[in-house]
Amino acid sequence: MTSLLPAQQWTAFRIPVSETMSRGRLTEQFTRCPSGLVVAPPGFGKTALLAQAARAHPGPVTWYQARPGADQRELLTALGYPPDTPAELAGVSGGSRQRPLRRDGGAAGRLVVIDDMHLLSPAAQALAVRLGQLAPPHPLVLIGTRPATGLPVAAMEASSATVVNADALRFRSWEVEDLFPRLYGTALRPGIAVPLVRATGGRAAMLRLFGRAVAADPDAGQEQILTDGSFGRAYLEREVLAPLPDRLGRFLTETCLLSRLTADACHALTGRTDSAEMLYSLAHEHGVLRAAPDGHTYVAEPLLRACLRARLTHTLTDVELARLSGRAAAGADDRQDPPSSAVRRRPGTADWTGPLRAVVAGTPDLFPGRSAGHVTGTGSSSSATLLVQGVAAALAGDGTAGDTVRRALAEATEDALVVLSGQLVRVALAVLAAGPAGPVPYPELQRIAYDAERLDLLWLSRAARCLLGLGPHPEDAGQPGVVLEECTRLGDAEGAALAATAVCLRSVWRGRPGIGELEDVVRRFRALGWGTPEAWGRAALAVVEAARDLPDAEQRAAQAEAFARSAGVPGARALAIGAMALATPDAANRVELQEAAWSTARSARLPVSGLRSWLTALASPAGDGAAATGGTRGGGQHASASPRAHAAPSVPGMTVRCLGGFEFTLAGRAHDWAKLRPRAQALLRLLAVRAGQAVHRDHLLLAFWDGVATPSTLHNLQVTISSLRSFLEPERPRGGSRLIARQGDSYRLVLAPGDVSDVAAFERAVRDGRRSRAQQRPEEAADAFRTALDHYAGELLPGDGPAEWVVADRERLRREAANAAVALAEIRLDQDRPVEAAEAAERCLEIDGHRDAAWRVLIRACDAAGLAADSARARRGYSAMLASLGIPPSGMLSHPM
């Protein structure tokens, strides 16, 4: 059978193709385990997840779609095992001598996927589980199944298998907001994602049906479609309710008026003595209900309950329905559904967010037990108070903060708000202590964000999502920017300030600390009056400015140190002293300041190694400051700068730079171009502009032989290509070039993995930015456009002058660079970041001084930032530009908007 996979893979059955977003946080778990099990009711996306894991597997893949009642022999035959395998497998499980099962020369590295295992016979199911328990060189086995009686989940977990259940597969609200525009072409209305996930349970099939309903009737309104619920009723009836045994279906219908199902409540309502067994079967054997952590309470998805209520209405008379509703209301238990972490909010627990806000704002008088910038051991011993003390210590840079947070968690087992907040603070402290090189505990952050959302603690869920953005998964990379947009839309200035901080951290994690982003964070905290985080922001900004050797960097670092000292934040003060060491030109003074920074850190019980790692990360030269702020392109030149800032870059196999000048190196070695004829040099530059792309010989003939295709010119072209190959790869035999490949009548400069081409990287970043902006992901679009501008070091091959073969590409790339700068400026202005918007607009005008949109954005940005002199200068420049084009000045110039 023809396979859709690459040539090195083989499938017994074709891997299904389904449209869904990447679930990297789930599929990555399968790469670290001997086997995996995906168990969930229908519609949760089991097959889609298995298909993603199969396509990501580097080795051969065998995909088996189970048939109803298939036995052991059919399973083994489909998977390609020998006929005598069953007896040997039994011997393996019994401890007899093991013989590796092989196929096509060996099974090592092969992935076997068994989808819908619940359809197999019990013996075949047991065999599939045994296959997953075998060690290498047996294949890695992934199994997808619905919940079923006798399913050996516990046996697989005991054998170190990774089990992904329905709760892990549920789409979170922030994932849904990204899913709809990406796959369904429809953006969700603000605020509807959370109720949509609650109503559907995050079930992939229900979300797809909602998307189709919205697309089919866009005038009905998304809220109305969700309230009506008819979009998923037929699916729930057919796929969820119809397969249930009659006795379970009747029991579920009779108890649907209860929002929370317990054995006692169901017994009181229906008189059934086997209610506990029925509830357990519906939850664990059929996956229709979701079990609460207490093991005795169960809940159904709201849309499923609505479907059941409609069933009940059709089967009972009005009198019977009213009587049943009365009994249900009398015995109902409507407490808040607890999160999966088995915690709940105690009635009457005091709200602790007020004292926490006071600590973050740097006003210790409002918080008992904290004075003069320090946390004392006095005051209340409640878990909430301990947690606030831990946060206060962390903000000050006290290394004992983690111990205080752990004590708070130990005392808060019954308070959901404190437990979830404490868990998030603990994770945040661990992430910040490890720095950009450390891991991000992805599963724990996902759980905290989801549990907080279920408890209506949306601000806490947003905070967890910001930390998710620091992880390696691309599907969550833009979460800090998304949260920033949400908080801005909701008018939550405090949440927006914290989200903007997460955006900065994301830039540092990517090795691109941005001056504009740090200035925005400092401005936000100053507007809120939050002195403690402002001290940290000022210190971090001082390090970046010092590393890039900006004017007045030494003075600004001293100001940051003075601010941190007056705010009582010793950790930020140590960071600011480190910035002063970077900025000073005097070597002796530099050593003295460095020692002062380490001493200040030690006095705050802050690890010196942690301070060093943050100085290294913030002093990275790959940030946004060079072109926009007037600093040096390569960063600061001080010998005391961090090792990361001045470490020699890794040398790729080939580096091709055509923007701002021509550079061509192989393994770090330059070439003596005088040994190569000028025409061959020019031909190489043309191929370099199109690196990685095939260039037809007609294009080369048109550029260098006036387009005349004669035997003589074709021979000259071949000779020129041959001379290039010999010049670049003298050690390779004739016909063995790996750099310049021929494809039919075309030639291509080959880009191998690790090779660098600034034009290719620039064009790729521009495409990514356009795509992200069209999909309404502005933060990702801004990052891509900024990356493109970093690559655009100047016009294309300026040394080739007005040569006809380069003029068209030069103008095209210049136009794309100007468009990228304008787009970046517009995005930053929409995000209320006018300083960055002005920098991007100025960059556009450097590239194209006649770009009308850039002048307009620059004027608006200067006005929004309160830069009166810069605004007046921009207006004069705009007027002069219009005059140079023969456009007379008009009243519109006083306010071009």
Give an overview in words.
- Among the domains are: 24-87 and 107-168, 3-Layer(aba) Sandwich (Rossmann fold); 173-230, no CATH class; 236-315, Arc Repressor Mutant, subunit A (Orthogonal Bundle), CATH 1.10.10; 520-621, no CATH class; 654-754, Arc Repressor Mutant, subunit A (Orthogonal Bundle); 759-885, Alpha Horseshoe (Serine Threonine Protein Phosphatase 5, Tetratricopeptide repeat), CATH 1.25.40.10.
- The strands form 5 sheets. Strands 2-3-4-1-5 form a 5-stranded parallel beta sheet, sandwiched between helices.
- Helix 22 (442-454) packs antiparallel against helix 23, helix 27 (531-547) packs parallel to helix 29 and helix 28 (553-567) runs antiparallel to helix 29.
- By secondary structure, the chain is mainly alpha-helical.
- The chain is globular, with a radius of gyration of 32 Å.
- This is OmpR/PhoB-type domain-containing protein.
- One of its GO terms (biological process) is phosphorelay signal transduction system.
Biggest beta sheet attributes: 5 strands, parallel
Can you identify the CATH superfamily of the domain at 759-885? Tetratricopeptide repeat domain
Shape call: globular
CATH architecture of the domain at 759-885: Alpha Horseshoe
Distance between the termini: 62 Å
Question: Overall mean pLDDT score?
Answer: 77
**How much is the radius of gyration in Å?**
32 Å
Q: Uncertain runs with pLDDT below 50, 5 residues or more?
A: 1-12, 90-108, 334-352, 363-381, 622-652, 890-897
Number of helices: 42
List how many beta strands DSSP finds: 15
Share in helix: 55-70%
Strand content: 5-15%
Derived from helix and strand composition plus strand pairing, the structural class reads: mainly alpha
Oligomeric assembly: single chain
User: Could you name the CATH class of the domain at 759-885?
Assistant: Mainly Alpha
Question: Reading side by side through the largest sheet, how are the strands ordered?
Answer: 2-3-4-1-5
**CATH topology (level 3) name of the domain at 759-885:** Serine Threonine Protein Phosphatase 5, Tetratricopeptide repeat
Keywords: DNA-binding, Transcription, Transcription regulation, Two-component regulatory system
DNA-binding region: 646-751
Protein name: OmpR/PhoB-type domain-containing protein
GO molecular function: DNA binding
